[in-house]
Specification:
Blueprint: E1 2-5, E2 11-14, E3 16-17, E4 27-30, H1 48-77, H2 79-92, H3 95-108, H4 112-128, H5 133-153, E5 169-175, H6 177-183, E6 189-195
Parallel strand pairs: 4-5, 5-6
Antiparallel strand pairs: 1-2, 3-6
Length: 205
């Protein structure tokens, strides 16, 4: 996406549409939670257990939300659209992920927001480096899960995509699979540099 500013202060965003057609409406800018400034702090030995419990509670919360989302999307949009949430649940229940979180927390002794971000970003980077089309979709699933956990840890209860006003033009640097599922329920369009919709029907705009 290219951003340019005119002499009169008007901001012009230039990007590519998710699908063919022309849409006119107010811009709804979708910000990635990873782009936000997040506080990093050191955790004392006494505070490690509290941080770990925070992360465990967030994982349980995400798991419940994923099950609810999978059931709702399957009812409203069909089984094929719900598989992304089931893939995320499989990752949540993977004992190796919990082990890596635990080891990183004990070795780095920082807050769990930073642990989630660093561990899952490393997972994503390694999968993408394999340059395999099928595995690249798994990298998007990892990125999706990372953002879900960070939203829960930050106390964000709803996904910002779902609050997009009808008729808006959604402006985003990148949209992940579960976000593209949400787009099927909105009367909007996305101007995006890259949009991971390979496994799904592209939303109408």
């Amino acid at each position: 996406m290219i951003v340019s500013t005119e002499a009169d202060g008007e901001c012009i965003l230039t990007g590519g549409a998710v699908s063919a057609g022309v849409a006119i409406g107010p811009a709804y800018v979708h910000h990635d939670i990873l782009d936000r400034v997040q506080l990093q702090y050191t955790v004392t030995t006494q505070g490690l257990d509290q941080e770990w419990q925070r992360l465990c509670a967030a994982i349980q919360n995400v798991d419940r939300d994923l099950k609810h989302s999978a059931d709702r999307v399957e009812r409203e949009l069909g089984r094929d659209m719900a598989v992304v949430f089931e893939a995320h649940r499989a990752m949540v229940h993977d004992p190796s992920l919990s082990r890596d979180f635990k080891q990183a927390l004990e070795s780095r002794r920082v807050n769990v927001e930073e642990i989630v971000k660093s561990v899952l970003t490393d997972y994503e980077r390694r999968v993408r480096s394999l340059e395999n089309g099928v595995l690249s979709e798994r990298a998007d699933d990892i990125a999706d899960l990372s953002r879900r956990l960070l939203r829960v840890l930050a106390g964000i209860r709803i996904h910002c995509i779902t609050s997009c006003p009808r008729g808006s033009v959604i402006v985003a640097k990148h949209l992940l699979p579960s976000e593209c599922v949400h787009l099927n329920q909105l009367n909007g369009c996305s101007v995006s540099q890259t949009c991971s919709t390979d496994s799904f029907n592209k939303p109408s705009v």
